[in-house]
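URGENT: need a sanity check before tomorrow's submission.

F., can you look over the Phosphate ABC transporter substrate-binding protein record below? I want to be sure the sequence and structure line up before it goes out.
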Amino acid sequence: MKKIIISLLVINSFLFISCGGNSSASKKNILVSGSSSVTPLMFKLAEKFEEANTNYSVTVETSDSTIGVQDTISGKNDIGMASRNLKENESPELDSYLLCQDGIVIIANNDSSIKQISEEELYNLYIKNTAIGSISKAISREDGSGTRSAFTDLTLIGKKEPLPNTVEILDSTGKVKTAVNSDSSKLGYISLGSIDDTIKPLSYKAKSQIEYVAPSVDNIKSDNYKLYRPFYIFTKKGKEMSEGTKAFLDFIDSDVGKQVINESGYVAN
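Structure tokens as predicted:
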């Protein structure tokens, strides 16, 4: 998957060290890469960290969870991001840290009449191509996506049988939102923290439930909303961390860092 680089460092070509400012060359960079679902939260954490630590800059590369793991194991980054649990063959190579819990939200176009969806309806749309009113097209993420992995584990959609060709595959959270926003017949799923007014979040009812439950931080905390998964960050095991990496990890685990996480629509660890 092609990486998209989001740099938090704004370079002013008219700013000189002699004028008392910090030039880009004097800043020590921290590279974070991986899940496109974790990226919006990481961007906010990095921005807040830089405000209090002007001698550091944080660069966030967004791709998917698997690439984030591979980058960390190979030493290409300082910190990796994943929106799924680590696999058995990945864990021995990494020191992982639980960042937060995040909801997976089923989304529809704002103009569609649908407001809620059951586990059975969701399964039938994705696997049997059974329409739900005006909703007739399903969108999923690509194979390396942590969001897809968690969605599969939680709903069993694509677990025993492959997704049919009728399901559209997109490789980022942003692309899923854009596709749903532009077509009222489409339905997809994204991170709770990525919800905005361009798409409609649907209430969800698992097989074990009687009532539909809205996706929210409070409903995740109470375990009433069943579609949620962990966000992880990780470093390479045995690799000596730079002072900047240590400082950023300490900030994320601080009260200020947890406040950023909670205010962004996630459940801090």
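My own read: The first strand starts at residue 4 and ends at 7. Confidence is low (pLDDT under 50) at residues 1-21. If you see anything odd, call me.
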